[in-house]
Write a structure and sequence with these properties.
Elements (H helix, E strand, L loop, with lengths): L2 H4 L5 E6 L10 H8 L3 E4 L5 H5 L6 E4 L13 H13 L4 E5 L9 H10 L3 E5 L4 H8 L13 E5 L13 H9 L3 E5 L5 H10 L7 E6 L7 E6 L3 H7 L6 E5 L5 H13 L15
Parallel strand pairs: 1-4, 1-5, 2-3, 2-4, 6-7
Antiparallel strand pairs: 7-10, 8-9, 8-10
């Protein structure tokens, strides 16, 4: 592969994963594409340092879904149109997403739209928070002694759906069998989600952890059980974005945390851990 092949090409859209937060966790491919982009369309949760490191002559477009101060937000249809429009003008377009572009990031929808419009594109994987957040908190999502299964699920479905696509009975059975559940975007519905798992038969004493703003300087970790995590999260004011982990692997954190603290501080953002730990 030549140096030219490694950089963004005119008329091409790159669906790029920015990783969980810390700029050091960008992939080399992501960094090269950002550095050669004409247009960077980024989500609102992409780290400020990543945005500020974009080329001075690149056009930056915030297409985050979070409402702005006046209630404005970019719709997915507008994002689709902007991608096609800029690529059709011969621009090198980086669509920069948090985590991985295909894990609850609508990368699949954007890829389909680009293909239908005849626009060349490339999907560039990123480190998903479903794995990164527990990892930096000392929680392996799989472990030979604890978990041989990992299930990633959204904690906040599209409100326009007529009925839920989440089978809480099946998820409870997975966790009960020793699997790990990684719930993304579930802070607001934490009471509902934990209640659904309990109602589906999962032991209230099942270990649970929440990792807020993983790899950022104000990272916060709280642990408890299915029965106590709601109160513990409220006590330390856990806010989005956060990943919720359910399963026996959460207990591994207790065995490694004393040494992990000094390692996590070496991240460029300087992670900090909450001491609001559970039993």
């Amino acid at each position: 592969m030549t140096d030219a092949d490694r950089t963004a090409q005119p008329g091409t859209v790159y669906l790029v994963g920015a990783g969980p937060g810390d700029p050091d966790l960008l992939t080399v491919r992501a960094r090269r594409l950002i550095d050669s982009a004409d247009v960077v369309m980024h989500d609102s949760l992409v780290h400020d340092e990543v945005i500020s490191s974009c080329p001075a002559d690149a056009t930056l477009v915030d297409v985050g879904k979070r409402p702005g101060p006046n209630g404005e937000r970019t719709t997915q249809e507008e994002i689709h149109d902007l991608l096609v429009e800029n690529a059709s003008d011969g621009q090198r377009v980086v669509r920069l997403k948090c985590g991985d572009p295909t894990v609850f990031a609508r990368g699949g929808e954007e890829a389909e739209h680009l293909a239908a419009a005849g626009v060349d594109f490339e999907i560039v994987p990123g480190v998903t928070s479903a794995i990164a957040a527990p990892a930096v908190a000392g929680i392996p999502v799989t472990h030979r002694d604890h978990a041989s299964m990992l299930t990633v699920v959204t904690g906040h479905e599209d409100p326009t759906k007529e009925e839920s696509a989440i089978d809480w009975d099946a998820l409870a059975a997975i966790a009960d069998a020793g699997g790990t559940l990684a719930i993304l975007m579930g802070v607001g519905r934490l009471p509902d989600n934990t209640a659904a798992l309990e109602a589906s038969g999962l032991d209230p004493d099942t270990p649970v952890a929440m990792v807020e703003r993983a790899t950022y300087h104000d990272e916060q970790v709280v642990t408890g059980t299915l029965e106590t995590i709601v109160d513990r999260a409220e006590c330390v004011d856990i806010s989005p974005p956060a990943v919720t982990l359910v399963g026996e692997v959460v207990e591994v954190r207790d065995a490694v945390d004393s040494c992990l603290a000094s390692l996590s501080s070496q991240l460029s953002s300087g992670s900090q851990h909450s001491r609001a730990e559970g039993d």
